[in-house]
Amino acid sequence: MKIHPLTTGAVRVKHSFLFPSAGRRRQLDLFLPGPFSDPLPVHCWAIEHEGVVRLVDTGETAAARNVPFARMEVAPEQELPGAMAAAGLSVDDVSEVILTHAHGDHVDGLVHVRGRVLINETELQWVRSPTSRVMRRLLRQPLPPGFAPDPFALDGGPFGAFPRSRALSDDGRIVAIDTAGHTPGHISVICVDDSGRHVMLAGDATDSLEQLHARRADAVGPDPEVHVTTLETILAHCGEHPTIYLPSHDPASAARFAAATTVQEKSAVGAGR
Predict the structure, then answer these.
(1) Per 3-state DSSP, what percentage of the chain is helix, strand, and coil (rounded to 5)?
(2) Helix, strand or coil, per DSSP, at residue 201
(3) pLDDT, tens digit, for every residue of 214-250?
(4) Contact 269, 226 (CB under 8 A)
């Protein structure tokens, strides 16, 4: 199995996005004036396994519009084709795309891909809900043209600490697991690498490893309690299995992957090793 980190530009987000206030200010602060972060990567991932190339998410495009709490920095050459070429791959090699969730910086690169696209059925229901439709219109964040992924159910039973999962490869080494919180149907993908480590392609389950250890719900998810429960489950899984934890916007993800640094839960603010 080979896993390739792909970087499709960067995004700056408000401090209130990364460190939200409690209560009603949690989401309100996203739309009020405030400082922005340094550029954060927009990662997606290519997996070569058993003669198949799969993508986990597709990254962003240069056509992306800013929103009140996020400013995109993507050049055309940083889009998916260029990112894959830098890894020695081509978008024509892709047989399947697995979407962690349906936000633009994870799905907009679908315009470059012709392979099958999969999404959790719960996420697709959320995408089609009136609330989600209204927010996309207000924020001017349309779905990519022809957006029509195939839904799948997390009906494969438990995987490690996760009660709901779905095997995505015939040998069960690529698995979708339920990481609801950032969106109601958010999933992450765990790859069991050739050394037996779990490589968790976490999407936006958190923005960083620090947020995971802090057990801090983000400013975007509709239910902070659900999000915190998911973070506890991820930490429990990392305690049971050597896990390399790779959120899409963590500046340390690529280096952590290259060094095969796994998470150890030593305390609420534990460190990787």
Answers:
(1) 30, 30, 45
(2) strand
(3) 999 999 999 999 999 999 999 999 999 999 999 999 9
(4) no
Please give the model's pTM, rounded to 2 decimal places: 0.94
Q: Residue 215, Cβ neighbours under 10 Å: how many?
A: 17
Question: Do 6 and 84 contact (CB within 8 A), yes or no?
Answer: yes
**Which of the 8 DSSP states describes residue 92?**
G
For residue 153, the tally of other CB atoms under 10 A from its CB is: 11
Beta strands in 14-162 (DSSP E): 40-49, 52-56, 70-73, 94-98, 116-120, 150-152
User: Which residue type occupies 87?
Assistant: A
CA separation for the pair 195, 213 (Å, rounded):
25
Report domain extents, the chain: 2-258
Across 1-64, the runs of DSSP E, i.e. the strands, are 2-13, 40-49, 52-56
Just give the CATH number of 2-258. Answer: 3.60.15.10
